[in-house]
Amino acid sequence: MRGANPPHGTYKVQALDRAFAVLDLLGESDTPLGLAQVASSLQLHKSTAHRFLMVLERHRMVERTPNGKFRLGLRLFDFGNRAIEQYDLRERAQPHLRRLVAETEETAHLCILEAARMIYIDKIEPARSVRMITRIGASNPVHCTSVGKAILAFLPEDRTAEIIRRIRFERMTHRTIVTLEAFRVELEKTRRRGYAVDDEELEEGLRCIAVPVLDAQRQPVAAVSVSGPSFRVTAQKLPSIANHLLQCVRGISADMGYLPSRMSRTALSA
Questions:
Q1: Nearest 10 degrees: CA dihedral of 55, 61, 66, 69?
Q2: Distance between CA atoms of 12 and 16, rounded to whole angstroms?
Q3: Please, what sign has the CA dihedral across residues 183, 187, 193, 197?
Q4: Which DSSP helix (H) or strand (E) runs through 139?
Q5: Which residues 6+ apart lie within 8 Å of 238 measured at CB?
Q6: Which of 99, 219, 222, 235 is the most exposed place for a label (fewest CB within 10 A)?
Q7: Which fold has domain 8-77?
Q8: Exposed e or buried b per residue across 112-122, where buried means at least 16 C-beta atoms within 10 angstroms of its C-beta
Q9: Is the pTM of this model over 0.85?
Q10: C-beta of residue 203 within 8 angstroms of C-beta of residue 228
């Protein structure tokens, strides 16, 4: 019937959709947003946007800055940590990551792709004095991380193109790749040698190397990296570390029920 209000259940679903749209908007913004910005971006009346923000704030999903703008709340961090703890991949990968750290004596990370960023879901450090300042649950852009390049290089072309469209190519150091053309060349280089390298592109003095974890269809579902100071993780050591990484991801894949034989790749070369 024309003009009739939507069923009550339908309204609740729409309200949930809008609430998640608010969270997505705040999560994608580099700075807190004002009420007018939220309403305008989501094409909502200010009163409607305000109502959603108040509910989210009450549940600590959103918090207000001293100047009255809104950003994501710390409760989401708690949820994220719980999700990571429950993530089966993380649990199954840990023995292999420990072995990798023992073999390389450098820090190992396990990461997954979310939009155009890599989420660190596990980290194991060696007993060394110089350690990585990273934390589980944090994220970094795909274009300047070895784990990001490792996944993008082995995704289907259409999926890679979709993610690349979201990249802002922010410069993190003087070595960061900041053009689409150069990034495509880097991905092709990664495909050829079978591993990705972050050569002080995210942080000065830090070099990382990563290999994707592939499933039975040879699709990347995560990436494992070895990271350390560039004076220890030298260019000469990369092929050797890459071989340790490949053994690590083969073990993870096997424990996840994937077929180890499907993980075979071209021989690693420098």
A1: -70
A2: 6
A3: positive
A4: strand 139-141
A5: 195, 197, 209, 270
A6: 235
A7: Arc Repressor Mutant, subunit A (1.10.10)
A8: bbeebbbbbbb
A9: no
A10: no
- Bridge partners (DSSP) listed for residue 213: 222
Q: Strand 107-114: give its sheet, edge to edge.
A: 139-141, 117-124, 107-114, 220-229, 206-214, 196-199
All structural domains of the chain with their residue ranges? 8-77, 87-263
Does domain 87-263 fall under CATH 3.30.450.40? My reply is yes
Strand ranges in 73-133 using DSSP code E only, listed in sequence order: 107-114, 117-124
Q: How far apart are the C-alpha atoms of 257 and 67, rounded to whole Å?
A: 51
User: Mean pLDDT per 10-residue run, the chain (270 residues)?
Assistant: 49 81 90 94 93 93 94 84 70 94 95 92 82 78 96 94 93 96 96 95 96 83 94 94 95 72 39
